[in-house]
Design brief:
Shape: elongated
Order of helices and strands: HEEEEEEEEEEEEEEEEEEEHEE
Radius of gyration: 25 Å
Distance between the termini: 76 Å
CATH topology of the largest domain: Jelly Rolls
Number of strands: 21
CATH class of the largest domain: Mainly Beta
Helix content: under 10%
Largest sheet: 6 strands, antiparallel
Structural class: mainly beta
């Protein structure tokens, strides 16, 4: 009889625990859509994006960082629940470094959440209207803002082959390498005055490449030019290569270049070992800051 009572009490306690365990609210999050900002002061160029992640906050508490698309459980319900969704990127292309992208707007909602229900979130963002851009999109053949250095043995050309161009069409830059035409070095032509003191600065690039490419920053003053090698874009398989987008963090280089009066971006590539020929395609090069 004693054991039966214990079992009955245990079953009753378990039943009570199950009944008191709340059902989660489900948030359904699709991939981000980057739309034009009608109040944008600077031209944002073609709105390509790779905002692959989201930081989720509910009532100002972080729920987590998630790769999109996803469906996540939230153990918060009731009226006037505050939801904040921050677009995020793989900083410098590194999957383990998922950073809120500072130049685009979050989604902020206040809504009623009911246990067990699923809510589809509006995953639409845009650049803040005061973001500043330096852009090379290769749409003005007579005014290309990249200059090939004299030491190069190959050069940048422009093309608009629809079989290669990004969705939406338009021109792109191409560098073709062979065993003899094997080196390309180029610099942006315009002097870029960039914010320092820890301000956010990024380089965005769309690229499609069967050869690796090194990016870097020149810090230029009246007395010196400092080369700052930065992020290398790894080569893709030539038979399957596709357009990718990377967000390269320039904050540390720019802020630490305290003697620089202005900056230029530079690119350097030499034909990869084992290749007899290869290609680099680039488009929508943007330096982005406030």
């Amino acid at each position: 009889m004693k054991y039966i009572s214990i079992l009955f009490f245990g079953a009753l306690l378990l039943s009570s625990c199950v009944r008191n365990n709340p059902k989660p609210v489900w948030l359904s999050l699709d991939k981000w859509v980057l739309e034009a900002n009608p109040t944008q002061v600077d031209d944002a160029g073609q709105l390509t994006q790779n905002l692959s992640e989201v930081w989720v906050y509910v009532d100002n508490k972080i729920i987590g960082v998630f790769e999109l698309p996803c469906k996540i459980p939230v153990l918060v319900s009731g009226k006037d629940v505050k939801i904040q969704l921050y677009p995020a990127v793989r900083n410098n292309g590194i999957a383990a470094t998922k950073k809120i992208y500072p130049f685009v707007e979050p989604v902020e909602l206040t809504m009623e959440l009911v246990e067990g229900e699923t809510y589809v979130m509006p995953m639409v963002t845009r650049y803040y209207n005061n973001v500043e851009f330096w852009i090379e999109d290769f749409e003005s053949p007579s005014q290309v803002k990249l200059e090939t250095d004299d030491i190069s043995t190959t050069e940048l050309t422009l093309d608009d082959d629809p079989a290669i161009a990004l969705p939406g069409g338009g021109s792109y830059g191409q560098v073709h390498f062979t065993s003899s035409d094997s080196l390309w070095v180029a610099y942006t032509t315009e002097n870029q005055v960039l914010p320092q003191s820890g301000a956010e600065v990024y380089l965005e690039i769309d690229y499609r490449n069967s050869n690796s490419l090194l990016t870097g920053v020149l810090g230029i003053s009246s007395s010196s030019i400092d080369q700052n090698p930065n992020i290398a874009l790894n080569a893709q398989d030539a038979s399957t290569m596709s357009w990718k987008k990377i967000y390269i963090d320039l904050k540390e280089i720019v802020s630490n270049s305290t003697s620089a009066d202005y900056f230029k971006q530079y690119f350097r590539a030499i034909i990869d070992e084992g290749n007899s020929q290869s290609d680099i395609y680039i488009d929508n090069i943007k330096v982005v800051h406030f």
